[in-house]
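User: Run a structure prediction on this.
Assistant: Running it now.
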Amino acid sequence: TTHPSSARALLFAGLFIVGLTLHIARVTFTRTRASGAVAAATIVGVLAFAFGRTLVGGDAPGSLTSSAIALNTLAAIAEEVWFRELCYGLLAPAGPGFAIAATSVLFGLVHLSTYGFAILPLDLAAGALLGWQRAMTGSWTAPALTHVLANVFVLL
């Protein structure tokens, strides 16, 4: 397409809508915890991503513009609805460990086309962290907040 940002925005909007509207029967191994648990899991995740960004360094792949922030925010939320709400919910009956591992692998594989194999271990670790947040809080809120902030860190 001649407008890749528009195509990506449509893709992520579609994932977001599909992920939210599909009704799935979920087995919850951890009840949704109080907002304090969500805040604590989010803080742990954000600190981990900030540490990783500091450790890895590198240059931002693009400029820090409002459209880049908006697209990266939409991407993060759509991916979390898809991976941590829908996929995790479908896989949770097999156990939280399996759901975390499987969604981490799926998360890493989806990012291969964008970042390549060199970043796969980092994507797997990110998926595991986001999955752990989902398991600990019983919600996709903490992973979504963490993922949004992680995407902004990449732009800095």
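Confidence is low (pLDDT under 50) at residues 23-30.
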